[in-house]
């Protein structure tokens, strides 16, 4: 277990590259996002995602992903022009959107055979830069044992996850301090999966304004 400090606004690329080296070797990194601290791992390999489950002491449950940019998500989904506009409006930010990728590029342990994955582009630069080095995506599940309180700072993460994580990156306290709101857009009508940092009502209002009215 190693601990490094990184500036929230402008994390050192040396630290980002060190984190990427660990992901390349199928290790786990804990770092800050705009909402909470997250566990970053390579989502393309089963053995790497399995380590996330072990660290969280978690039974099988889908794992959300953090993306380097909205364009990274557009490149693997069939989001039309209006949905892309909606996603560009809400990202970067604390909203996770469940979509269906066009192929099976990610580990089955991410989506558990559903074909549906929650994507988010966080406002914090560290995970975006790390995702950019890692093919556009990293895991983004919260840094805690399943069922316990998610970590807002590095001490809370270390207390729960300990030596199951290879590198902890300390960037202070996560600014929002609560989980992202999760919305499923894989069916005709948007479905709220989890309440969080942004009200469901405001998301639906924006979705109707940008997407639905243009599909009528």
From TrEMBL:
Keyword Endoplasmic reticulum among record annotations: no
Domain YrdC-like span(s) in chain numbering: 13-198
Family annotation (Gene3D superfamilies): DHBP synthase
Location of the protein in the cell: Cytoplasm
E.C. no: 2.7.7.87
PROSITE patterns assigned: YRDC
Domain of life of the organism encoding this protein: Archaea
Catalytic reactions of this protein: L-threonine + hydrogencarbonate + ATP = L-threonylcarbamoyladenylate + diphosphate + H2O
A GO CC annotation given for this chain: cytoplasm
Gene Ontology molecular function terms on file: ATP binding; double-stranded RNA binding; L-threonylcarbamoyladenylate synthase; tRNA binding
Keyword field: ATP-binding, Cytoplasm, Nucleotide-binding, Nucleotidyltransferase, Transferase, tRNA processing
The keyword Glycoprotein is assigned to this record: no
Top class in the EC scheme: transferase
InterPro entries in UniProt: DHBP_synth_RibB-like_a/b_dom, Sua5-like_dom, TC-AMP_synthase_SUA5
An example Gene Ontology biological process: regulation of translational fidelity
Protein family membership: Belongs to the SUA5 family.
PANTHER family linked: SUA5, THREONYLCARBAMOYL-AMP SYNTHASE
Protein name per the record: L-threonylcarbamoyladenylate synthase
Organism encoding this protein: Staphylothermus hellenicus (strain DSM 12710 / JCM 10830 / BK20S6-10-b1 / P8)
Lineage: Archaea, Thermoproteota, Thermoprotei, Desulfurococcales, Desulfurococcaceae
């Amino acid at each position: 277990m190693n601990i490094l400090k990184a500036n929230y606004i402008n994390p050192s690329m040396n630290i980002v590259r060190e984190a990427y080296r660990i992901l390349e070797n199928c290790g786990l990194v804990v770092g800050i996002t705009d909402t909470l601290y997250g566990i970053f791992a390579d989502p393309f390999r089963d053995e790497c995602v399995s380590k996330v489950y072990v660290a969280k002491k978690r039974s099988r449950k889908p794992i959300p992903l953090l993306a380097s940019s909205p364009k990274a998500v557009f490149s693997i989904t069939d989001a039309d022009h209006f949905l892309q506009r909606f996603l560009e409006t809400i990202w970067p930010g604390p909203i996770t959107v469940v979509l269906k990728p066009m192929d099976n590029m990610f580990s089955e342990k991410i989506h558990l055979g559903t074909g549906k994955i929650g994507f988010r582009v966080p406002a914090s630069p560290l995970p975006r830069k790390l995702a950019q080095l890692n093919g556009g995506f990293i895991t983004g599940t919260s840094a805690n044992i399943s069922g316990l309180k998610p970590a807002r700072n590095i001490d809370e993460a270390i207390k729960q996850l300990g030596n199951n994580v290879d590198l902890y990156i300390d960037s202070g306290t996560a600014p929002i301090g609560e989980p992202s709101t999760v919305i499923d857009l894989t069916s005709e009508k948007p479905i709220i999966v989890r309440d969080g940092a942004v009200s469901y009502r405001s998301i639906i209002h924006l979705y109707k304004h940008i997407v639905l009215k243009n599909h009528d």
